[in-house]
Amino acid sequence: MAKEIDFTGLDKFLDQIDTVESLVKGIASDKDGSDTAVDKYLDKHQGKVKKDKTGVDRTVINHATFRDEPTEPSSNLDKDDFLRVVERDAEERYRDKVVREKEAMRLKELGNVEFKAGNFEKAIDFYTQGLAEIKTLTALWTNRAQAYNKIGKYEEALSDCDWALRVFENCVKAYVHQGKAYLGLKRYNDAINSYKQVLNIDAKKESIIKEYIAEVQLAEKTENDDLAAEEAFKTDNSEVGNVVDLLDKLNRPDQLPLYYSGGLRIITRFLTNTNDRTLFRTHGGLQLVQSHPAVSRSFSSHVNSLSKEDRDVTWACIETYTAACTDNDENIKQIMEESKYVGTLQTILTTKRKLLKEACINFLHIVSQSELGRNQIISKFDIPSLTKSVFSLMNSHGLMAVNAMGFINNLTLNPKYKAQLRTDVENVFSAFENFIITCDVSKSTLPLCLSAVTNLTNDAHIRQKIICRKGMWDGCLHLLAVPCMNSSSITRHKEALHSLLGLAMNMSLEPSEECKAAAAKMASYCVELFNSDHNDLRQRSLALISHLFPKSREAAETIYTTSFLEKLLNLLKSDNQKDVTSSMKVITVFSQQISQCSLDIADNKDGLNSVVELLNHDNEHIVGNAALCLSNCCSVTKVCSRLAKTNIIQNLLVIVRDGRMKDVQKNAGILVAKLTQGDPRHLERLRELHGIEILHSIMKHVD
User: Fold this and answer.
1) What is the pLDDT of residues 320-376, one digit of tens each?
2) Taking a C-beta distance cutoff of 8 angstroms, is the pair 450, 414 a contact?
3) What's the angle, vertex CA 451, arms to CA 502 and CA 526, rounded to 5?
4) Which 3 state secondary structure label does DSSP give 57?
């Protein structure tokens, strides 16, 4: 990290300037010329003049200019006095600097208070007073620059940022406020370059800088769109001009609500391209919620208290804004600043007004399709309350349920959304639990719902709370039951089952009592899906089984059969690493928990050889499970004898010596020990390869 520049020299320079000013004043007031301020200055700074490489002082000062008579050589006592004066002067200047720094900090805090209150002019005044005390406090420059940006004095902000960077060349805040100032001046390339400077200082700021740069790009695009729209309006008044004309007609006072709702619907039909949407914004369309009496009234009262006609105005306005915000980030940005509009949307979603709710969800779905839109929604809405309201729409029919789940899926792309849900997971997911417990697996919106919740469970904090909810596991079992009890329906419900298995895999990543209780039944359903003709379902069901087995011995005992084991052993030869990983993990758990498994593996010569070959695999997780499985199989005498004819000892010593994972090294070491105990030929081979020395040197470091 770059260090702040040491400005001690600058302080001394500024102090010397002050001294020279006093010196000049002293000359003017000194009548007799004896003991002048010049003498004091020269005495005070004696020995500080710059010398050349020979050590000779090349600066010649004509003392006669200032004195009538030459001075006597100083005595030893004079030198002691001089040193004491110099020391005292340094101490005084240090104390003065401390006092000035303290006062500057006090003024900075006062400025911060005024800034937070929105009193930017007063804040600037305090920061300016602080800079009069000390000019090397970076925060005073950057804070004043930020305040200047707030009131549109961008040139002044740039000057302050320049000073801040002189004080501290790696000042991140200075570059950020510099970028804001350039943006205000519409110097877009300069703004982007300023923001990019931050990444050269701190690469961890990439996320926020990406947002700043997107803001600049949006501003530039908006300016270009505005110019293009106005030009189109001037040259072709017959088409794009209709939006402007209709807005003028919409603003006619004292009309019936039906007139305004009808006018909004007509305008909506015209908002089909960038020019029309831009003209709608530049001619006051997005301010209707505040400026238009009828529209404002509809958004100022609770929706349940409105007349049918006023609710119709509300509905028409939301539809118009949906069209205006389609593929238009600037319109999204501006309408989301209307707190009255946002508050009404959130309220509508808690009511039983179906048409209005459908319009709200459609608007939110359109807005959530852009990154800026998602950020706006997350920053403006009460996210837990909004999510709960949207989840309650999962049982709806038609487009509303599709848009509702599409909206949630879009929001899950933003980590900030998940972070805001962590505090209220229980209330949010109660609606989802009720849905999946009672839902028919054939419901068309089910895959979208499951996908949305799966995305949420990628967050560890949310997942930890969800896996402890019995209703979540009961709902998953309910959805698995119908197709798994009737294998002919698996194909029909394939999409829903694929999403459901993904959710269950996430939920089973960590242990919980609820997972343990559901594991046996869920594993038996997974076997049915594993035996289906669909590769993607087979892979996911096997992966889920591999998650469930370590958490429940009962699950392994429930589904173990020799024929199922044979299928798993055959999968070890697959080119798909996911299949190999999951199969090997399941076989290993079987070999630990089911005594019959080791006998079955021993009797299956090809299967045993497949496990041995995996000791040479590139994936250490697969190698570790293969070594552990073979250790379990060594309880069968013929396994050790059969393996004596292979190079297994040599392969295991390589794993022990070169393995990166301690658990894998440990499993390999245990297998070596069991092989040497099961057949003396393995011990002979170990000695030939100096394996005992290798084991001693490596295994002492493994717990």
Assistant:
1) 999 999 999 999 999 999 999 999 999 999 998 999 999 999 999 999 999 999 999
2) no
3) 25
4) strand
User: Whole-angstrom Cα distance, residue 47 to residue 163?
Assistant: 32
What's the pLDDT at 225?
80
The structure tokens 């050589």 sit at 73
Q: What is the pLDDT of residues 280-331, one digit of tens each?
A: 999 999 999 999 999 999 999 898 899 999 999 999 999 999 999 999 999 9
d(CA 571, CA 567): 6
Between CA 115 and CA 171 the distance in angstroms is 20
Residue for token pair 């298995």: 501
Q: Which of 502, 507, 482 is nearest to 493 (CA)?
A: 482
CB 664, CB 622: distance < 8 Å:
no
- Distant-in-sequence, close-in-space partners of 556: CB < 8 Å, separation ≥ 6: 523, 549, 589, 590, 593, 594
Please name the amino acid found at residue 527. V
Q: Are 698 and 655 in contact (CB under 8 A)?
A: no
pTM higher than 0.70, yes or no? no
Is 118 strand, coil or helix? Answer: coil
Number of neighbours of residue 97 by Cβ within 10 angstroms: 16
Question: Quick check: helix, strand or coil at residue 51?
Answer: strand
Residue numbers in the chain where pLDDT is lower than 50: 1-75, 77, 239-240, 701-702
DSSP 112: H
**Spacing of C-alpha 240 from chain mean position:** 40
